[in-house]
């Protein structure tokens, strides 16, 4: 998708503030600093619409980005600082958990991981949460520009194995720096709209 028009809706703190358009929604999740804001900005062709490196301990809000009057990206707080215990317990706090579990418009969670490193325990917990609630995932392995192309497959396998990914969930190698994986990511999203 070639994005021309993006509207940053709001920082929603309660259900009544969620958009009412009924457009398909794709929630973005990833541990802090993994490159989630850079992914969003690259995908929507903006330099810095999504805040980069959101600070820990801030109010937990959902930021909705309305794209081309067709869909929403929903930015959820980075989970690196949140204390995560069991895969079925609160990940971000009750509001965001509830959004992920019961939002009708949610088509998939786009989970961002770092292609360079095996997914962390928090990444695995997040993915388990999606499995437990039968929420489809699109896994984006970003910062691909930091490793040689010849090593992609090896690193992809580590990500797939460690997350124990479901066969139907795609894993896409990405780089916000180089634009790698953009078309593939859009194709996956558009295929689920
Ligand atoms: P967030 O906290 O998950 O939103 O992470 P950011 O998008 O703010 O990125 C964290 C850091 O990683 C920043 O210094 C980015 O410049 C860097 N970064 C993000 N994506 C990439 C990428 O694809 N390649 C490289 N080399 N650096 C990246």
TrEMBL record:
EngB-type G domain segment(s): 22-193
Keywords for the protein's UniProt record, in alphabetical order: Cell cycle, Cell division, GTP-binding, Magnesium, Metal-binding, Nucleotide-binding, Septation
Known cofactor(s): Mg(2+)
UniProt entry tagged with the keyword Lyase: no
Presence of the UniProt keyword 4Fe-4S in the record: no
Record's function text: Necessary for normal cell division and for the maintenance of normal septation.
Similarity-based family: Belongs to the TRAFAC class TrmE-Era-EngA-EngB-Septin-like GTPase superfamily. EngB GTPase family.
Protein name (database record): Probable GTP-binding protein EngB
Organism annotation: Sporosarcina siberiensis
